[in-house]
Amino acid sequence: MEVVWPVIFVLLAITMFLLNSSRKQTQSCKWFIAALVLLALVRFNQAVYFWFQIESSHQAVILGTAILRPLMLGSWLMAWWEWFDLHQPKWLPKINAILTLLYMATQLLGLSWVSNSIIHTHFQAIADYMRLLFVALMLFIIYQGIRKQGKKDLLVLVAALLMLIALFPKEISDLHIIPGIWFPYGVGVSRGQFFYVAFVFVMYVVLIQKNRKVELE
d(Cα 3, Cα 46) in Å, to the nearest integer? Predict the structure, then answer.
């Protein structure tokens, strides 16, 4: 399944690119494609390590945890920021960039084999708080999007919330609202997989509607 998800996300990115290839690529489209590709790489990195074993465990963790994942979270914030065409507050993109870089550093220093056993636990705790900041910023962006767009782009808001839940499994689990794993037909499926499927479906509907609207104009 870890190989399927990268393919799905890349296909969605390609679809978005092709639908916008006949006209100038908007900033939101570029950020969205980047976020989808980075999400695909995060999932693919796990498959490469477990299936092909061409990476050492240290290399896989550094690439996935300390590099790709922080870049992915930062990209998703910018993708929604640009999609909702938000301009205020102007400091948010800069804060997002700084938070992404700091998160990369704390994730790296939070590895037990990078820093000693006492220090790395402190960095892990700091990284957890930083993830909460990412959640807060994404919720703020979604809220600003609701204020600006209203019900006009309700499906986009639904997609943003679906991706939020999928991207932050630990934080959502701590709320004890949505089970972390479901068992349809006796098969265990994680919450994230359900929400990824729902997100991809909703975004395809959004892209089809948007493309039809452009054709009618």
Answer: 9
Q: In angstroms, rounded to a whole number, what is the distance separating the alpha carbons of residues 30 and 16?
A: 9
Q: What's the Cα-to-Cα distance from 140 to each of 95, 146, 199, rounded to whole Å?
A: 13, 10, 19
Mean pLDDT comparison of 64-68, 130-134, 187-191, highest-scoring range? 130-134
What six digits make up the tokens of 37?
A: 């590709």
User: Do 200 and 7 contact (CB within 8 A), yes or no?
Assistant: no
C-alpha to C-alpha distance for 13 and 17, rounded to whole angstroms: 6
**Digit-coded pLDDT (tens) for 88-130:** 888 999 999 999 999 998 888 877 666 666 676 787 888 889 9
Q: DSSP per residue over 34-47, as a string? A: HHHHHHHHHHHHHH
pLDDT digits (tens, 9 = 90+) for 174-197: 887 776 666 666 555 677 788 888
Which residues have C-beta within 8 Å of that of residue 121, sequence separation ≥ 6?
110
- pTM equals 0.85
In whole angstroms, what is the distance from residue 81 CA to residue 41 CA?
Answer: 22
Residues 6+ apart with CB under 8 A from 62: 108, 111
Distance, in Å, from the CA atom of 71 to the CA atom of 62, rounded to the nearest integer, reads: 13
Angstrom distance (rounded) from CA 7 to CA 189 = 19
Whether residue 82 is predicted with pLDDT greater than 60 in this model: the reply is yes
